[in-house]
Amino acid sequence: MEYRQLGPQGPHVSLIGLGTMTWGEQNTLADACAQLDMATAYGVTLIDAAEMYPVPPQAATQGRTEEYLGQWLKQRGRHDDLVIATKVTGRSDAFPWIRQGPRLDAQSIVSACEDSLRRLGIDCIDLYQVHWPERQTNFFGQLGYTAADDADAIPIETTLRALGNLVRDGKVRHIGISNETPWGLAEYLRLAASEDLPSVVSVQNPYNLLNRSYEIGLAEFAARTGVGLLAYSPMAFGALSGKYLNGAQPAAGRLTLYKRFSRYSNPQAQAATARYAELARDHGISPAQLALAFVNMQPFVRSNLVGATSLEQLRENLESVEITLSPEILEGISGIHREFSNPAP
Length: 345
Fold this sequence. Notes:
By secondary structure, the chain is α/β, with parallel strands linked by helices.
């Protein structure tokens, strides 16, 4: 396993990180423990959760993912050699069961952190992330930015001060952001410098062969500031495995079970996926290995957050660190990307 540093002064984390959003919905506690045992045996040190998990979010299961992780940590008696990451839910009216509608003010952030600490059964969260912005901006695939009247939005400074207080009180070691824009990251960094507040060490955004939009505005920050990417959805919700091609609907697949997740199912994305799958097979590797190895090789990526519903899937994901893409494969990827540039942002 390779290890990379989060931010200039953050922790080193494994190049492959373990995502957890299926735990408590598609995966049982026993499944979660088995995944954690396998991942850590391969050298994974970053485990990423969120207070709103599992996904799809619902009142009956909210927080269950953190509870599963907490039970494993208690059973195995380990935390010191791992980086436990979780997230406070961004502003939304869709989750009234989370603090009557989550916001990013100080009171909400403190309450969310305390609840996550309790579910995880730990004294300090290694990486505490803002799941998505308070303000109205482009995330979760939204295109065509239009300025909105969001005067009632909690300012980033208020959010950052609340996070800083958690760091000061020893409840959080490092902070990160997620589903952010270049302006948002720049503002967090500006406020950290001007107000003597903690600086974010990572951005957790989507990044995969169907959505390389991170490269356009955010990748440069990794080179200039050290704040790199925790890449989520590197397999585009499993689409890049090729298992949904030609109208296939595997019984246990997320895109089969949950029709609401259509981000990677448009005709352009499917056409691009077919081309990437063909390229992989022409060179003797699986489509999943191609997709993950491409993410692994990016210098701005700090950890590639893989998720799986079976140990067989997880093993293939973990072993992607052993794959080196040849110049011929990279040339093929570039050609497909020119033809299908970011078909599923």
